[in-house]
Amino acid sequence: MHFADSLTQQSKKKSPICVGLDPDLKKLPEGITKDPAGVLAFCKGIIDAVKDIASCVKPQMAYFEVLGWEGMKVFWDVCAYAKLQNLLVIADGKRNDIDSTCEAYADAYLHAGSPIDALTVSPYLGSDGIKPFLERCVKNDKGIFVLVKTSNVSSGELQDLPVGDETVHEHMAQLVEGWGMDALGADSHFSCVGAVVGATYPEELKYLRTLMPHAIILIPGYGAQGGTAADIVSGFVPDGTGAIVNSARGIIFASKGKDWEEAARKAAEKMREELRTILK
C-alpha cells in the first residue's frame, strides 16, 4: 500500500501520534541496563505500551549509532519489532549526499524488504539528493520526510533567510510539494514526500500547510520542546488528516521509575485526548 495511504489509515484508526524512540543512555529508567541490550528492552517496552495508541514510531538513529555496531543491530531489531506490532516506522537519520551516495542510502533504508517505512532526509544538496529516495519510495511503497522548518531555536539562521519575496523554508516547501505530485496515494491523495515542520513555529506551520496541500507534515517539538495541541492544529487539513505529531521525551521518559511503561502509556493516552479535542 502507498505509504501516505497507510499512514493516513493508521492515523484515523488509532491517532496521529508518532512516538520518538530516543533511547538516551543517561535517561534510561530504573531496571534498564545502559548498554545495547538495555536499549533494546527499553524500546520494545515503549512499543508495547503505545502500539494501540500511536500510528508510528520514529527511532532516532544517533542514539543507536553511538553504541557502535551492536547499536545498529539493535536499531534494526527495534524497527522489525515495531513492524510486528503493526506500527509504521520512520527512521530519523536526516540522510543526504550527492546523487551517487544517495543511491546507496536509499537502497540501505528503503529497499523492498526493509522494516523501515520512511526516512527523514535533508534537502540542502538539491533535487539530485532527493531523486534516489523518491524513486525507492515509488517502487517500494516507502516515504520520506524532508526538513523544511525544523523545531530547533537556531533553525532561522538558514531557513528564514529571504530569497526574493519568500524565505528559504517557504521555497523548500514548494519544492517538496512539487517533488511529490507524481506520487500521490489513491485513497489519501497525499504524496510519499512529506515535510518536517516544528510545532515551535505555529505561524510558519499554518502558512506552510497552504504551500504543501499534498504533503503529510511530520510535526516535532510537541510536549517537552514546548509545542502544544493549539500550536499544531493548523498542520492538519480540515478532515483531521495530513499530519502526524511526534513526542519523544514527554512519552518515553514520563517516568524513570519501575512504572516507566505504564507512565509512557498514560502520557500517550493524554496526548491522544489533547489531539482529539483540538481536531474536533
CATH class: Alpha Beta
> How many helical stretches?
12
Q: Please list the strands of the largest sheet in the order they lie side by side.
A: 1-2-3-4-5-8-9-10
Architecture, according to CATH? Answer: Alpha-Beta Barrel
Q: Care to describe what's here?
A:
The protein is α/β, with parallel strands linked by helices and 280 residues long. The protein has a single domain, classed as Aldolase class I (TIM Barrel, Alpha-Beta Barrel). Helix content is 44%, strand content 16%. It has twelve helices and ten strands. The strands form two sheets. Strands 1-2-3-4-5-8-9-10 form an eight-stranded parallel beta barrel, surrounded by eight helices. A two-stranded antiparallel sheet has the order 6-7. Helix 10 (229-232) links the parallel strand 9 (217-219) and strand 10. Helix 2 runs parallel beside helix 4 and helix 2 (36-50) crosses helix 12. The longest helix has 20 residues, at 260-279. The radius of gyration is 18 Å and the shape is globular. It starts with a helix and ends with a helix. The model has no long low-confidence stretch (mean pLDDT 95).
Give the arrangement of secondary structure elements:
Blueprint: H1 3-13, E1 17-21, H2 36-50, E2 56-59, H3 62-65, H4 68-84, E3 88-95, H5 99-109, E4 118-121, H6 131-140, E5 143-149, H7 156-159, E6 162-163, E7 166-167, H8 168-180, E8 193-197, H9 202-211, E9 217-219, H10 229-232, E10 243-247, H11 249-252, H12 260-279
Parallel strand pairs: 1-2, 1-10, 2-3, 3-4, 4-5, 5-8, 8-9, 9-10
Antiparallel strand pairs: 6-7
